[in-house]
């Protein structure tokens, strides 16, 4: 294969497999999960895509390097594709963790009036609803409102910069003051009945913040 053919082969495989991973992740997250996107579910998606991904790689090789494609062991190709998928997943998780680990609570001086920009990403029927909570799900964000929820493409850190008030109770969850019904143990219960995890190391700061937003 020439250098140009290698580049086209690599770009094609990464684009097709990446699009399939994102699309399937989005569908699974919206259909079966609420609150956050667990690691085991992401790994299951990667495992399911191992065979289709290997087929994509094989077809691309058959086009650009037929001699190479004819010598490939299908089982080895599947394992290699799964390994690459897991590497990409690990990089994605590291980047996501780097963005949210120090998120904490945004200072009032840092909050910008970007509510309209945030709400523009929501379905029309939810744009006028108060945002009660946000839950990070891989590359997506689940927005909880009194009348429903939506999954949008945004990070938790970016969303916090667009919404005034609220507190990040966990590396994957943010809540507004008006959304909280009660707290018990390591859980925060919202007015909708949804319970979200409260990180132990954020508990003290959360209690102090809650006193400032709870009517006397």
Task: Please tell me about this protein's structure.
α2 runs antiparallel to α5. The longest helix is centred in the N-terminal third of the chain and has 30 residues. Helices cover 50% and strands 16% of the residues. With 216 residues, the protein is of the alpha+beta class. The protein contains eight helices and eight strands, in the order ααααααβββαβββββα. Strands 3-2-1-5-4 form a five-stranded antiparallel beta sheet. A three-stranded antiparallel beta sheet has the order 6-7-8, with no helix packed on it. The protein is elongated, with a radius of gyration of 21 Å. About 7% of the residues have low confidence. It folds into two domains: 98 residues, no CATH class; 106 residues, Beta Barrel (OB fold (Dihydrolipoamide Acetyltransferase, E2P)).
Quick recap:
The protein is α+β, with helices and mostly antiparallel strands.
